[in-house]
Amino acid sequence: MKAANRRQSKRSNILVLLEGALIAYLAYIANTLILQVSHTPPPSVNQLAFNVILFTFLVLVSALSVGLYEPKLRETFRGIIRRIFVCVALSYFVMELITSTFLIELALHPYYLPTASGLIILALVLFRYFSNRLGLLGLGKVRLIVLGAGERASIIEKRMRREVDRIGFDLVGFIPIPGDDRSSGIQAEKLIHVKVDENFRDFLQENDIEEVVIACDQRRGTLPIEILFDCRIRGIEVVDILDFMERETGQIVVNLIYPSWVIYSNGFSSQNYLRDMLDYGINAFLALLVLSFTWPFMLITALLIYLEDGFRTGASVFYKQERVGLNGKLFKIIKFRSMRPDAEKDGAKWATQGDSRVTRVGNFIRKYRLDELPQLWNVLKGEMSFIGPRPERPEFVEQLIKQIPYYNQRHNVKPGLAGWAQLNYPYGASVEDSMEKLKFDLYYVKHQSLLLDILILIRTVEVVLFGKGR
User: Fold this and answer.
1) What is the pLDDT of residue 206?
2) CA-CA to 338 of 20 to 30 Å: which in 191, 262, 321, 462?
3) Contact indicator for 66, 125 with CB cutoff of 8 Å
4) How far, in Å, are 321, 384, 416 from residue 329 at the CA level?
């Protein structure tokens, strides 16, 4: 355990030095940019050095205070971004206080601090993203062991087979526990046959284990509570398989959920009137902004649909369909028609990839999401938001509620033009696909925030520009 702590401390020290150099460089570049734009006289060397060194020091100290250099930091990327914003904002406030109150003669241009702060936030977010994504320095990567080797534990083997799926941890192995369903359990992973008794803590220390994941099939009478309590007191993290999968994969494993987990788990924040009003205001503003840029494309799309078959059949270029919205309320969604006018003459059907009912124009507008643009009207009406679970048809919802546990919980938030599930799961058209998408939808419902919405919007723009996914 001591060796592991030394390794983590060394990595954290390297990270502090790298980010310190990055912050200092950007603090210097910010002054150069200001001089280029404002054409003001350059500050003295001492004046510039003081601002660069002090601001770098304040950002690093603030980052330490919010835990950004904690060796065992187990945080989602959104959480890391939030901490970066907090530490830079705190540094900005202290820096502004010092240079405007105590050391006025050393203050730089009024726009220096905002520019430096913006550059530093952007650079730190990108640096942390790529260092986490590529596994640089091994930061935040912990050695863990899974208590259980049955059906619940096998979710790790099935869903996290690739090396990139395990970039945040080093899995030592699985410990079989009495009551595990071994027939449906771990098949190819390493099994460790060790008794979870008074000597278990010695095993953890000898193998530098920093986290224990509870994934046994039968908890009653099989979990060594006193041993796990002792591990927790000694600084070893003990987490449930649901929390582990949520943290590492960005989804909630619906088929493993039990009611007490939902009751005691963080998240699932309730809505309130003020938040709803603010949310509508932001969404309406974004809808008008997008509309001001996309209306020419909408006109061209409508014309192409009309020329392809609208002129011949007299069918509308728009397609209205009943969908299930917030709290199960029905509303009419509006889209550009991408299928033949007689596409549902035999009743409602799942849309599939390569659907023969889709027209030539429809294939193109679906690829680049142009068919979704009329839904800006649904956003302005308050029936939808930009980000949220995609609204489903009532005929399918009625079927899915009966077959998928907790499916109705996705209606606790407004449906959206883009969603977490659409970014993380390919096009699907079955009950099984709906189950997989629900795992991401519930993650969004549980963790909905402005920061997550921004992340989804940015990734959605990438999908639209490069024609990926659906």
Assistant:
1) 86
2) 462
3) no
4) 14, 11, 14
How many angstroms separate the CA atoms of 213 and 240, rounded?
6
Dump pLDDT digits (tens) for 3-36: 445 555 666 777 888 888 999 999 889 888 888 8
User: Residue 430: which residues within 8 A CB-CB, separation 6 or more?
Assistant: 350
Same domain, yes or no, for 296 and 233? Answer: no
Residues 303 and 394 in one domain: yes
- On whether residue 268 sits in a domain, the answer given is no
Angle at 182 between CA 176 and CA 183, to 5 degrees: 165
Q: How many domains are there within the chain?
A: 3
Contact 215, 148 (CB under 8 A): yes
Query: For the chain, which ranges sit under pLDDT 70?
Result: 1-11, 70-76, 132-141, 164, 259-260, 262-275, 345-354, 426-429, 462-470
**How far lies 380's CA from each of 229, 286, 417, in Å?**
52, 9, 12
Angle at 235 between CA 231 and CA 237, to 5 degrees: 75
Q: Residue 318: its pLDDT value, please?
A: 92
> Tell me: the pLDDT tens digits for 253-277?
887 777 667 666 666 655 555 567 7
Token output for 454: 């921004």
Domain's final residue, options 112, 138, 164: 138
Q: Is 388 helix (H, G, I), strand (E, B) or coil?
A: coil
CB 323 within 8 A of CB 393: yes
| pLDDT at residue 470, as a whole number | 45
Q: In which domain, by residue range, is 221 found?
A: 142-249
Please report which helix (H) or strand (E) contains residue 171, including its range: strand 169-175
pLDDT of residue 375: 93
DSSP alpha helices (H): ranges in 66-163? 77-97, 112-133, 154-159
Rg (CA), the chain: 27
Tokens of 363: 């294939």
Cβ-contact 258, 252 below 8 angstroms: no
Q: What is the DSSP letter of 269?
A: P
**pLDDT score for 323:** 93
List own/partner pairs for 57-63 with CB under 8 A and 24 or more apart: 58/90, 58/91, 58/94, 58/95, 59/23, 59/87, 59/88, 59/91, 59/120, 60/16, 60/19, 60/20, 60/23, 61/91, 62/86, 62/87, 62/88, 62/90, 62/91, 63/19, 63/87
Identity at 270, one-letter amino acid code: S
CB 387 within 8 A of CB 417: yes
